[in-house]
Design brief:
Length: 388
């Protein structure tokens, strides 16, 4: 097995916490009933789902009925965008106005583009600064009478910057425009209180937070009946058809309960390793820029652009040395096209091909950080000498 201390891709996914595994285990083979069944086996599973919903509602400070379980945050994002765009289209038979940032995860960006190309909405992109952060004043100017939804990512998955979601949400609230944020990365590290945060919907996933893959949620801050994306059943108040994934739902609730208990300690450790990486790479490697905001960013996230370096070659060399890093989102990390986000913050081709994301987590050590930065410096020097 690889050395887990050399795993530096926690923004892609995390190992499942042992306590989460233990919480999930009975629902694979002991309490295995279908929650929609009326008999004892089914009702025991139903109870587990509702207890998990209650646990998550307390974590996010919302009502249990405002939590809709999905298969992923990608599905959650698709669901909320399709709901508002298609509801307006069905009622008015003309496209509504959708606003997003150019640095959204593809689960929002590609979904919005698809709806736009199909003629169901007019799509506008908020400007971002060189850190990839949205200016609330721009949002105030761009909202129209026919704006059906604003969706802005909370913590960026590729460059780590954190957007001013409270300010953006207050603008939308004042203008009576629904506001959604993809909080997949942010909520995996920070506590989110929906009683204080002026958003209508957030998307989350378990596997960024030491929970299982294949389970997410769309959480609302208001009582809106969502148009289903998937049909064929009455689960989740007829908003998401399909048999409940009981073990994974239980696992997600446990993962977020552990986050609440350990949040301060996790953030302290993540920031310490994060800042160690920033310091060492800035010192050891020339022609490098930090991408995203240097401090207003996810606690476990570092990202860089190295001038005149091929990111795919660098990724392969680091992998051969046992290190797991990424050149961008895990959803497209094998393609250099994933560096579009670097272009959107003003970098040109001599920089964008050398983008790298290094994210830390539970098994990161000082020794592994030191070895990674030394190895990285050596490989970048090698690539620059041999590709001129």
């Amino acid at each position: 097995m690889p050395d887990i201390s050399k795993y530096f891709d926690y923004a892609a996914t995390t190992p499942v916490h042992p306590d989460v595994v233990n919480a999930m285990s009975p629902y694979f083979s002991e309490c295995f009933g279908n929650p929609s069944s009326a008999h004892r086996w089914g009702q025991d599973a139903f109870t587990a789902v509702e207890e998990a919903r209650e646990s998550l509602s307390k974590h996010f400070h919302t009502n249990p009925e405002n939590i809709c379980f999905t298969g992923s945050s990608t599905e959650s994002n698709n669901t909320v965008l399709n709901h508002f765009v298609m509801s307006y289209w069905n009622e008015n038979r003309k496209p509504g106005h959708l606003i997003i940032s150019p640095l959204e995860h593809s689960a929002v960006g590609q979904t919005a583009q698809h709806l736009h190309e199909a003629g169901f909405c007019v799509l506008d992109y908020l400007p971002v600064n060189h850190h990839g952060i949205v200016n609330p004043d721009d949002l105030s100017r761009m909202i129209r009478k026919d704006t059906v939804l604003v969706s802005v990512i909370y913590g960026n998955n590729e460059i780590g910057s954190v957007n001013p979601i409270p300010d953006l949400g207050n603008i939308c609230k004042t203008r009576n425009v629904p506001f959604h944020t993809d909080a997949t990365q942010f909520a995996a590290h920070q506590l989110v209180d929906l009683q204080k945060l002026p958003v209508d919907f957030i998307s989350i996933a378990a596997h960024k937070c030491y929970g299982p893959k294949g389970i997410g949620a769309l959480i609302s801050n208001s009582k809106i009946n969502i148009m289903p994306l998937i049909f064929g059943g009455r689960q989740e108040k007829a908003q998401r058809a399909g048999t409940h994934n009981v073990p994974y739902i239980v696992g997600m609730a446990k993962a977020y309960a552990l986050l609440e208990a350990e949040c301060d300690n996790r953030i302290h450790a993540e920031k310490r390793h994060r800042d160690r990486i920033f310091e060492q790479i800035s010192t050891k490697i020339p022609d490098v820029v930090i991408t995203g905001h240097p401090t207003n960013r996810l606690s476990n996230h570092t990202s860089f652009a190295f001038r005149n370096v091929d990111g795919l070659s660098l990724l392969a060399l680091l992998d051969q040395s046992g290190f797991a890093v990424s050149i961008g989102s895990a959803c497209r990390s094998t393609s250099i096209k994933g560096q579009q986000q670097l272009r959107n913050i003003g970098l040109d081709n001599e920089w964008t091909n050398g983008g790298l994301r290094i994210t830390v987590g539970a098994f990161t050590t000082d020794d592994a950080v030191d070895e990674l930065t030394e190895t990285l410096a050596r490989y970048i020097s090698f690539l620059r000498k041999n590709t001129r």
